[in-house]
Specification:
Elements lengths: L6 E4 L4 E3 L7 H12 L5 H7 L6 H13 L4 E2 L5 E2 L23 H4 L12
Antiparallel strand pairs: 1-2, 3-4
Length: 119
């Protein structure tokens, strides 16, 4: 389970917490894979982050880490750190590799379209 964010409300049945921002997701993905101690498939990451971040946001974070070469994709499609021991867990190879892309929100600061007037 990824690290808890700021808890807004907590009850015996429900815990409501703030969702992580896009800039925080890559670090959370790395922590999750490090804590697991083995390469993880994208489906496993989606299950870990269910209710915290959507699949599209998670895919962007993974592709960002692949572009920075912090994360690597193994032939069976699992994702792990470069020094991690890899053992194939699926018999078929992944047909299409993921496309490494930098997240522009993280690399470049957002543009400010409105500047409030000084008083």
């Amino acid at each position: 389970m990824p690290k808890r964010q700021k808890v807004v409300y907590e009850d015996t049945d429900v815990i409501v917490e703030l969702a992580p921002r896009d800039e925080e997701l890559p670090e959370m993905v790395l922590e999750t894979i490090k804590n697991k101690g083995r390469p993880m498939f994208f489906d496993e990451l989606v299950k870990e982050f269910s209710g915290i971040a959507g699949e599209d946001r998670l895919r962007r974070a993974v592709n960002h880490l692949l572009a920075l070469k912090i994360l690597m994709e193994y032939p069976d499609g699992s994702l792990g750190l470069p020094g991690m021991k890899w053992k194939p867990r699926r018999s078929r190879k992944r047909r299409r590799k993921r496309t490494p892309r930098l997240m522009t929100d993280v690399v470049m600061p957002p543009k400010v379209y409105y500047i409030p007037p000084e008083q």
